[in-house]
Amino acid sequence: MTNYVAGHSYFINGNVNSAVSVRQALVTKMNAVNPALEFWQTEFSILEDGYADGKTELAPMDYSIWLSRVIHFDLVESNCSGWSFWTALSRPGVADHAYRFALINWYPNAESRAACTDGDFGVSKNLWTLGNYSRFIRPGYKRVNVARSDGLTSITAAYGQMASAYASSSSDTLVVVLINYSEYDQQLNLNLSNIPENFVLETLKPYVTSATDDLKSYPEISAQAPVYLKARSITTLLGVNENTVHTSLKPKNTSGTSVKIFPNPASDLYKLIAGKVVQC
């Protein structure tokens, strides 16, 4: 008997309310059956039409920012510990398929298999979007709870800014993934004062996927500085425990007002069960 529940996250994402409530209902049911059960999302692609958000003309990033919200909901609302995309390589059949169904698109030089001898490849924004998670959230990492000071819920924040955070099993790395779903640039402050006492975090390294960035590496910023988010973007912040590099440094606290990151367990503050990320 397995301790994993596998499912596909199709056709529940067009409406934000159902996207959250269905996932929360899954967690409730799993806890009632067996609290040790883990959920794996084993196949997803942009098959449903909700990604349009009412738009008639879409840019490649419009598809990918919607995909990032699906991943966010699966990890945060479903406590998903394994997430898989379908498909890695595909030949676009119609115009918008280049932005929907594959991480890498194949464009053959001939229509028939017999005549095909070569072709071109194109990388979609979906690859870089997935990379904002999969490159940094490694097997064994645990999701840590994020609290926001603006009072928004998962539903009311779905068209604004979303945040999730993950810590390595050795507590030497912190990963924060920030989604700015809105059409405007935004700025957030991170309050990291509740990280473990032995975790000294002085800088954060941003990696950004946006209309103009493909998981682009940006210069390090101070852990106390506001975080700038481009419109319609995913930003991953990578923080390394300075205590593992400079043992003479003393733990420091930082200040801020917008987001608080708490270590697991946080049962006195939240009743969500933090999931261990096995594969992404």
Overall CATH architecture of the largest domain: Sandwich
Helix fraction by DSSP (H/I, runs of at least 4):
10-25%
Q: Tell me the name of the CATH homologous superfamily of the largest domain.
A: Golgi alpha-mannosidase II
Domain module tally: 2
Structural class per helix/strand content?
A: alpha+beta
Q: Care to describe what's here?
A:
The chain has 280 residues and is of the alpha+beta class. It has two domains: 4-131, no CATH class; 141-272, Immunoglobulin-like, CATH 2.60.40. It is 16% helix and 29% strand. The protein has three helices and 19 strands. It has helices at residues 16-33, 60-76, 125-134, and strands at residues 4-8, 38-43, 80-83, 89-90, 104-108, 119-123, 141-144, 146-148, 161-167, 173-180, 186-188, 190-191, 203-209, 216-217, 221-222, 227-229, 233-240, 259-261, 276-277. Strands 7, 9, 10, 13, 14, 15, 17 and 19 form an eight-stranded antiparallel sheet that branches. A hairpin with a 5-residue loop joins β9 and β10. α2 (60-76) runs parallel beside α3 (125-134).
Layout of strands and helices, then pairs:
Elements: E1 4-8, H1 16-33, E2 38-43, H2 60-76, E3 80-83, E4 89-90, E5 104-108, E6 119-123, H3 125-134, E7 141-144, E8 146-148, E9 161-167, E10 173-180, E11 186-188, E12 190-191, E13 203-209, E14 216-217, E15 221-222, E16 227-229, E17 233-240, E18 259-261, E19 276-277
Parallel strand pairs: 1-2, 2-3, 4-5, 12-18
Antiparallel strand pairs: 5-6, 7-9, 7-19, 8-18, 9-10, 10-17, 11-16, 13-14, 13-15, 13-17
